[in-house]
Amino acid sequence: MTPVYRQPYPVPGVIWASLPIPALLVGLDGRVAEVNPAGEIFLNLSSRALMGQPVLDRLVIDAPMEEAFSRARKNQSPIFINDVDVTTGERAPVQCNLQIAPMNDNADFLMVLISPRDIADRLGRSMSVKSAAKSAIGMAEMLAHEIKNPLAGISGAAQLLSMGLNAEDRELTDLIVEETRRIVKLLEQVEQFGNVRPPERRAVNIHDALDRARKSAMVGFAAHMQIIEDYDPSLPPTYADPDQLMQVFLNLIKNAAEACKTTGTTIRLRTFYDLSLRLRRKLGKPSVLPLNVEIIDDGPGIAPEIAADIFEPFVSGRENGTGLGLALVSKIISDHEGWIQVDSVPGRTVFRVSLPVAPKSMEAD
Fold first, then answer.
1. Do the Cβ atoms of 290 and 273 come closer than 8 Å?
2. What's the gap between Cα 221 and its chain centre?
3. What is the pTM of this model?
4. Closest-CA residue to 69 (of 84, 60, 79, 59)
5. Contact call for residues 109 and 103 (beta carbons, < 8 A)
6. 35-44 confidence digits (pLDDT tens)
7. In 3D, which of 96, 25, 31 has the Cα closest to residue 62?
């Protein structure tokens, strides 16, 4: 057997393991001498498999990295490379910021820090979405109240007029009644968006909420779809309102089913545990969101022009969509101190919901 390669370099274990971004130590020969847990996740390989491998065989970086390594060693100063595409060859390129720095007590080693830009950008967008959702709620309640009453009067007047008209003219009054009813139905959806109560959180089994949503979808809008369950049964309970969590999953499955009407046939529900996502709150220590649920469809994908704003109120990729379903999902997840993101290319769209673990003092619902 080929011996495991490891250059001797003492890395403080606690600090190294606590780094929230991928980090590697690279020796003079350009091989990986050490990798932290976040780096293992990013490269989807264990430290044992990475040790001794040429770093540029495992990472494809759209930048002159050999030149950057040489300059960092020669000048004994850090180098920053911003906005470059990084991939492992098995995943789509991710735009990252790189930091390359020589180790002060051993110049033969370089530390390479990889900061994926997509996480920071999405976190910023999620905060703005939460604010936009609150503004939309106030506007939704005002619109529903101010418009529904006049519409009822218009519909009633049209019905009275129709009593004295011939069949040809009644078609016009019937159109007025039909259209006012359609608008009232739309306003009721807007009212629902504005009337979400604060979550009543307790320990909840994610798979129970997913199963309720799946069964509801299968007897309704997703009856024509194949829904595949890919669950990690060992997941601990999350801290959530079970009804609101079920509503989130139902909305996401419905969104996937509607996206697949023309080209796709399959929805995959996947759950897994991942410690890499930590959100820093305004007060207190960062919260860990290790419980992940993915709703994956094989539809045409999200139009690029709306992809960055898909969780904003009134943004929709469907011709007759209200643009409130995903905004509601975003608001509920935000109220649960979680995070939602989407990755979409033609043929594969993934909505990922990340949630906290329930406090240990609680028992599963």
1. yes
2. 23
3. 0.56
4. 79
5. yes
6. 988 888 888 8
7. 96
